[in-house]
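Handoff note, outgoing to incoming analyst
You'll be picking up this chain. Sequence as last confirmed:
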Amino acid sequence: MAKFIFKLQSILDIKLKLESQAKIAYGQANAKLKKEESVLQAMIMRRADYEKRAVELVSGAICIRDIRENKQFIDVMKTKIRAQMMVVRTAEKQVEAARKKLNDIMIERKTFEKLREKAFEEFKQEVAYEENQAVNELVSYTYHDGAPD
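Most recent structure output, in case you need it:
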């Protein structure tokens, strides 16, 4: 019995490895994005606390120094939030790039798998044809061998 050998199997194996690496890279990029988003969320919550404190400082006994300090904290947090938003956007772009790369690699792998399937179907047809030929030869030989001359 003949054995099926796909000539491009080594390339398909490489494509599978590249796909697994791309999946890992995508997962890492996604994890980084989630982390950066949580840092941003924490900063926003902290700024909200400072703003809440500002309202409390103004409504109670007024201490100018505390109000100024709180205002500076709010301004610093706004700056940090803007910077963190840029970090989040960069992480989003990295996730999108990793997703696109993963998608491209998956398309290439699927292409090679379809080539493999097509080659296997051709192989099966060749084997079936050869078996049919062998049966025909046997039948032909048996028929001619048993026939009176």
